[in-house]
PH domain-containing protein
Amino acid sequence: MIFMASTGNSAAKAKYEQKVPAFYYCPTHTDCQLLREQWIRARYERSEFIHVERQEPYSAGYREGFLWKRGRDNGQFLSRKFILSEREGALKYFNKHDAREPKALMKIQTINATFQPTKIGNPHGLQITYLKDNSTRNIFVYHEDGKEMVDWFNAIRAARFHYLQVAFPGAHDVDLVSKLTRNYIKEGYMEKTGPKHTEGFKKRWFTLDDRRLMYFKDPLDAYARGEVFIGSKESGYTVLPGLPSSTQGYHWQFGITIVTPDRKFLFACETEDEQKEWIAVFQGVVNRPMLPQEYAVEAHFKHKP
């Protein structure tokens, strides 16, 4: 029976996954239900990986349509026209249906997309981020049609893939695929204090995106209140449990100190488990040697006012 099941699976795989594009996101059991469900439908219902022409919605290099986008100031979701153009190297959206100029132009080079159904409060919720003046800008969107949303996600991945193929001509596809989109390492609430460590601790929502630790007043804010760059131990970054003994003004008991070459950042977690999880992920970042391009990002953070 086990042999039959395994050969049956490999035969089905050979048939239904003949032509999966390198950039197409193949979900795992940890991904959201939407991605897993649409992956099954793409394979068996729509036979997208047998009939290449059915991949047009995400492989054509151009896509336009309407998505519900969360308003930056009022939090309402409104229908907005989006255009993704590989030729222009950008994803744009327009505030009015007849507008000539886009409200925002997001360069493919810095764009990221990650499904966030719980945070956005919609099973098809997608968080798109891009860099604007080297600060991260968040956009939250969804579409009622699950296929439509996953097609947008894979179209963004395709555009990133083709951009990276041009930017790194000698690189193997498999190395580029890991850079197309990324999920956040960890998100959640912590308390933080300011640079002087005297102004009391405030509760903030934190997102660790690669080496950028961003903090927000609200999880769905468009811009972070601040960003902390976390370098490697070779560059003088360390993570310590607890807070310096002189620290005051915190409500949560489980402290974390991140030491950088310039200053100490102090955080407090509500539970010991949260503290351990955050320390583990920070340690993972600090233990990872920095890439050449990350030194330029670090330099930018040091020169921020």
